[in-house]
Backbone:
């Protein structure tokens, strides 16, 4: 699936991925690809501006991890992020149900 | 030069510095370390740096406009308290101070500068709020927001300076508690304004490359979308000056119990408002202009596709062509090596025909 196909949905996909368990950028990408069975073809770098944007909007929080040898930024969902995710899920289900009803 | 180094340089070139750049580079370094050789999939480092810079510039410009509005609110409260207290003490005659050289600048600072700050600061904050949902704003629009913010903060600082000059001018006439109160309030307001200015500095350093129009006051205030007003924007200036003059006339006539006094001050207020709009209107996006309504023609791909092939290219053309090439790389149309070759060719191109040759299969 080309990047244009999920324009506007990347933030929701990231929130859903991080909501299960805090993770660093590469792990978030791996989970995204596993869950979508590799359907999303995005330039991997675009993940990071999205992560920073979600953090600026207080939907994600992040901190440096001391566990690995390298410095690693770990992202977690904030309560506001969980609320936003629930809202986006409801909207998406309503939207996809409507589209499916029309397409048949 | 490796991918990370190019990213770091591109971030620096776009004004992303300090902790923000350090964090981005460390995160991407960790990503590459997880899967060595994945640089190609990360995308063009220049395009990635541009995305970071564009988004940061938009977020920081909006934040600086709102911070400035907050600082101006503090200044307004400080000025209002000072004036209310002065009303109780009794206004000293203008010739009872130390020197007119202090009095007149103080008057300008305390009565004209706040009006400029109010208009410019409100317009900046209004645009920031109205565009809060946009991830990236056009560079021209960011320039408009930061320009309005800068004018508002400068006017706010002039207000604070005016208060301090007033205190100094009447230091031998007014009670010490009022002098201390006003001087202290002005210092607090000045501190808030300086903090807001620092926030603005952080936003201005970032260089956004997103094309698009800046918009103007008719976009900020949809209520003003009357055709007769849009067709001749100077009419808006006249209308605003008239409104300010009438409001001042009514207020002063009531306060001074004198119609003549009210009319006199209303006329002065109207003239000053008209002068202010004439001087600062374009900078604040109050007065429309072709440049504000639409991006420069050289900003568009159209400019590259049209025109004589023998025309010599300028820096704007090269920037636009590079953007097309980088978009092509981001979409997977060309490889990293081709990107590098074509960018070199763009910078070597002297005519439009040579520039078009680098883009033939991308436009």
Residues:
């Amino acid at each position: 699936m080309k990047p244009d196909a999920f324009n506007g949905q990347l933030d929701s996909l990231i929130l859903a991925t991080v909501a299960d368990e805090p993770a660093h950028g590469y792990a978030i990408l791996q989970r995204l690809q596993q869950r979508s069975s590799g359907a999303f073809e995005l330039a991997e770098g675009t993940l990071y501006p999205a992560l920073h944007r979600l953090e600026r909007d207080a939907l994600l929080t992040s901190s440096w991890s001391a566990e690995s040898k390298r410095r690693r930024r770990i992202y977690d969902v904030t309560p506001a992020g969980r609320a936003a995710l629930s809202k986006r899920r409801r909207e998406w289900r309503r939207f996809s149900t409507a589209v499916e009803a029309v397409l048949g | 030069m490796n991918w990370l180094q190019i990213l770091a340089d591109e971030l620096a070139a776009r004004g992303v510095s300090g902790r923000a750049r350090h964090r981005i580079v460390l995160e991407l370094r960790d990503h590459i370390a997880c899967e060595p050789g994945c640089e190609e999939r990360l995308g063009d480092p220049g395009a990635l740096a541009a995305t970071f810079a564009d988004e940061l510039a938009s977020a920081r410009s909006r934040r600086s406009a709102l911070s400035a509005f907050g600082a101006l609110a503090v200044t307004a409260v400080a000025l209002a308290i000072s004036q209310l207290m002065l009303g109780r003490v009794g206004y000293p005659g203008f010739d009872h101070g130390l020197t007119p050289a202090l009095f007149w600048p103080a008057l300008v600072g305390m009565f004209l500068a706040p009006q400029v700050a109010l208009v410019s600061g409100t317009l900046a904050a209004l645009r920031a709020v109205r565009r809060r949902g946009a991830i990236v704003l056009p560079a021209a629009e960011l320039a408009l927001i930061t320009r309005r913010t800068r004018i508002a903060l400068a006017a706010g600082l002039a207000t604070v300076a005016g208060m301090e000059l007033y205190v100094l001018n009447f230091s031998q006439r007014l009670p010490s508690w009022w002098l201390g109160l006003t001087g202290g309030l002005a210092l607090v307001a000045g501190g808030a304004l300086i903090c807001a200015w620092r926030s603005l500095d952080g936003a201005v350093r970032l260089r956004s490359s997103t094309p698009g129009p800046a918009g103007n006051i008719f976009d900020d205030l949809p209520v003003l979308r009357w055709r007769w007003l849009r067709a001749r924007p100077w009419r808006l200036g006249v209308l605003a000056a008239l409104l300010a003059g009438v409001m001042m006339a009514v207020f002063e006539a009531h306060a001074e119990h004198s119609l003549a006094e009210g009319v006199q001050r209303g006329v002065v207020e109207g003239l000053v408002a008209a002068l202010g709009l004439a001087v600062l209107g374009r900078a604040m996006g109050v007065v429309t202009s072709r440049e504000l309504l639409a991006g420069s023609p050289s900003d568009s791909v159209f400019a590259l596709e049209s025109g004589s092939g023998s025309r010599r290219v300028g820096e704007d053309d090269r920037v636009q062509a590079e953007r097309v090439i980088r978009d092509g790389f981001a979409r997977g149309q060309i490889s990293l090596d081709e990107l590098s070759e074509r960018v070199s060719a763009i910078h070597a191109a002297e005519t439009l025909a040579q520039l078009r040759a680098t883009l033939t299969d991308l436009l």
